[in-house]
Each structure stands twice: as structure tokens, then as C-alpha cells.
Write a structure and sequence with these properties.
- The protein is α/β, with parallel strands linked by helices and about 400 residues long.
- The chain folds into two domains: about 180 residues, 3-Layer(aba) Sandwich (Rossmann fold); about 200 residues, CoaB-like (Rossmann fold).
- It is built from 13 helices and 21 strands.
- It has an eight-stranded mixed sheet, sandwiched between helices. Strands 2-1-3-4-5 form a five-stranded parallel sheet, sandwiched between helices. Strands 6-7 form a two-stranded antiparallel ribbon.
- The longest helix has 20 residues.
- The chain is elongated.
- The two termini are about 40 Å apart.
- The N terminus is likely disordered.
Length: about 400
């Protein structure tokens, strides 16, 4: 499951049009609410043929509207009132017919009318047969909507309900929820390029064995996701982990510390901020065995270890160097050892935690150290903590630039 972030309370109007992909709206409502987004559902009459208003009312906890003449709105102007306090309108699924209405300003039902009368952003998630999507008329409508600053989410390519394969599938509920979270989030890193390392490294001993550590990569991946939501162009260099890639993030997968260092060298010149979250092995085997070492009666095996390059220190020593953020996992004397590391490596910002309280866990408690002093952040799940840290990094980066 992908990470879910608790963002500042937002309000979204979810419009559902007629199409078999309407069944995904049930999960989408729950995913949005998991993100602390309040959901108001409005359906076309065609949509009610695929999923019932009762289902969506039960999931959203709010009345569902389908009728332009609904008397439950005191002034009988549902097309005006329902969108006025919303941060965005999302149409999912958006049928070819409904996209044509939007493109040409037609308003003959509640959903199309409130879209025309809105004063908030509009996002649409197309869902239709591949031939309908590829039809020149649909593509003209897409171009018109894009020119009108309507945001398109998808469509995806794959197997469709009709049995054909191609472009036109609605994005999955999780991807749509992630896209909405990103769209609604503040953008303190808009236009900034971030390079992040995450996860452990694996230093081979022989063909099947290696030296590694207990890093799960969760903190690095959570930071990559939060940075992308904050508007940054994010490149993630990841050691071997079993985590899904955050939407909108570019990833390069590596195994060893030497591979990670080489990848960092190839991309660091294009970044404004470098965040070293990966738990990089300090040492590697000098001469790994090409084949598996066979067990013998011998009771000891001696390996010669040599130091790996300190990637963070190398990046911080470049001229010019990006704004550098390091992570220090200590087992004792947290502030003392972390600050010594920050000063020795000439790092702009150091984020420190006790390894025994963080590695492999879903939550963490960190201390931030820079030239201004020491700040402690309370224990929180790593996704919420990542949001806070990205704001801290953005603030410190802007301050240094000034």
C-alpha cells in the first residue's frame, strides 16, 4: 500500500458520470477521506445506473446530489452552493460525453451546470473505450479543456471492460487520491530539483551473500513523496527495498555503495537540494568472491574490508555544492555525535535519530541541527514527519539562498 499523508483539511466535490469505471468511485471516496479530504459526491443520472447514491452516501458520510432541482439546498441553487466552499472539483470517471459538455460549455444537469458555475480548479479523470478516446472529436475536446486550464489525470492504458486493450482506462483510485493530495498540497519547493538517496546498500561477499543493514527505505520514500507534493522535481536513488515508487518521482535503483555514489555523481549537478537518507555501508569487501563460498570444516573466514566513499561529504565539498541535508542514525549521544558529523562534513542541515527507535519502523522521532541550533520534532509516523521535514528543508533552503 502506498503512503497516505494527512494534509490540511481540504474539501473536494467528486463528480461521477456514467461509465463502468464508476465502481472505482467507492474506493476513491475512501482513499480521499484517508487523506483527510472532505468529499461531497454529485452524480449524473447515468452514473446511478452503475453505482447507487446510497453506497456513496454511506462511504462519504454526506448526502449525494443528482438533481438540478434538488430542494434540499435552501435557495434551490445546488449548482451554485455545492461548489462555493470547495478547493477543487474532480470528475471521476469523466465520460466522453461529459468531457464534450465541459469543452463546449453545455449545462443540462446538476454536475455540468455546477462545473460551468464553479470558481475553483477542475480536474477530470477520463474513462472510455480506446476508440472513443482516440476519436478526433474527443482529442479536440481534450485540447480545449487543456487550453481552459482543466487538469487531466490520465487516462491509463490497459485492458478495458469491453475486452479491448489500449488507452482510455481510468486511473486507479489510489493514483487519483495521490494526484489530488499532490494537487492540493502547498508548493514551497515549486521549481526546485531534489536528489534523494534512500534505503540500504548491499555489499557483495560472494555470488549469493553480502553485507547490508536494516534500513527499510520508508523515510527516504516518504520524503520523496512529500517533496513531489511540495512541487519539487524529485529524483530518487534507491538501494534494494520493497516499496512502491511515489507517483511523479523518478527513480534509479542501485545495490552497492559504489553504484549509489556513481549515480549521485551523474545527477548531483542538476539538483538544487541533496538529501542523503540512505543508510550507506561504510565498508565493502575488498575482493568479493565470484562464486559462492563453500562451507568447509574451517571455523573462521576472514574478509578484508575497505572504506566506501562518504557520499554526503563528497557532495558537500563540491563547488558549487547544492543545499545538503544529511541523516545521522546514532545509538547514543545523539546531539553530540550528529552535530560533530554535521560540522565535519560541512552539511547545511542534519536530521538525527536514534537508530534503535527508527530502523524498520513506521514512525520516528528526529532532531534537526543547523547553524541556528537544535530543534526536536515529536514522534510521528514517517509520512507525517516527512511533510514537516520538507517544510523545514524548504524554509532553510530559501533562507540560505537569501
Amino acid at each position: 500500500m502506498r503512503y497516505m499523508t494527512d494534509i490540511t483539511r481540504k474539501k473536494v466535490l467528486l463528480g461521477i458520470t456514467g461509465g463502468v469505471a464508476a465502481y472505482k468511485a467507492a474506493e476513491l471516496v475512501r482513499r480521499l477521506m484517508d487523506l483527510n479530504i472532505e468529499v461531497q459526491v454529485v452524480m449524473t443520472q447515468a452514473a446511478t445506473q452503475f453505482i447507487t447514491p446510497l453506497t456513496l452516501q454511506a462511504l462519504s458520510g454526506r448526502s449525494v446530489y443528482t438533481d438540478l432541482w434538488d430542494g434540499r439546498i435552501p435557495n434551490n441553487m445546488a449548482h451554485i452552493e455545492l461548489s462555493r466552499d470547495k478547493d477543487a472539483i474532480l470528475i471521476a470517471p469523466a465520460s466522453a460525453d461529459f468531457m464534450a459538455k465541459l469543452a463546449h460549455g453545455l449545462a443540462d444537469d446538476l454536475l455540468s451546470t455546477l462545473c460551468l458555475a464553479r470558481d475553483c480548479p477542475l480536474l477530470v479523470a477520463p474513462a472510455m473505450n480506446r476508440q472513443m478516446w482516440e476519436n478526433p472529436a474527443t482529442q479536440r475536446n481534450v485540447a480545449t479543456l487543456t487550453a481552459d486550464k482543466v487538469t487531466l489525470l490520465g487516462p491509463a492504458s490497459g485492458e478495458q471492460a469491453c475486452g479491448e486493450v489500449g488507452q482510455g482506462r481510468m486511473l486507479e483510485a489510489l493514483d487519483l487520491a495521490e494526484s489530488m493530495a499532490s494537487f492540493l498540497a502547498p508548493k514551497p519547493l515549486q521549481g526546485i530539483s531534489l536528489l534523494i538517496t534512500a534505503g540500504p546498500t548491499f555489499e557483495p561477499i560472494d555470488a549469493v551473500r553480502g553485507i547490508t543493514n536494516l534500513s527499510s527505505g520508508k523515510m527516504g520514500y516518504a520524503l520523496a513523496r512529500s517533496a513531489q507534493h511540495a512541487g519539487a522535481n524529485v529524483t530518487l536513488i534507491s538501494g534494494p527495498v520493497s516499496l512502491p515508487l511515489p507517483l511523479g518521482v523518478n527513480r534509479f535503483s542501485v545495490q552497492s555503495a559504489q553504484q549509489m555514489f556513481q549515480c549521485v555523481k551523474e545527477h548531483v549537478q542538476q539538483c538544487d537540494v541533496f538529501v542523503a537518507v540512505a543508510a550507506v555501508a561504510d565498508y565493502r569487501v575488498e575482493k568479493p568472491y565470484e562464486q559462492k563460498i563453500k562451507k568447509t570444516d574451517a571455523t573462521e573466514l576472514t574478509l578484508s574490508l575497505v572504506p566506501n566513499t562518504d557520499i554526503l561529504a563528497w557532495v558537500a565539498s563540491q563547488t558549487p555544492a547544492p543545499f545538503t541535508v544529511g541523516f545521522a542514525a546514532e545509538s547514543e549521544h545523539l546531539e553530540k555525535f550528529a552535530d560533530e558529523k554535521r560540522r565535519r562534513k560541512k552539511v547545511s542541515l542534519m536530521i538525527a535519530n536514534l537508530a534503535q527507535q527508527a530502523i524498520g519502523k513506521d514512525d520516528n522521532e528526529v532532531t534537526i541541527l543547523d547553524d541556528k541550533g537544535v530543534r526536536h520534532l515529536p514522534r510521528a509516523n514517517k509520512t507525517d514527519l516527512a511533510n514537516t521535514l520538507i517544510l523545514e528543508i524548504a524554509k532553510a533552503y530559501r533562507a540560505e539562498k537569501k
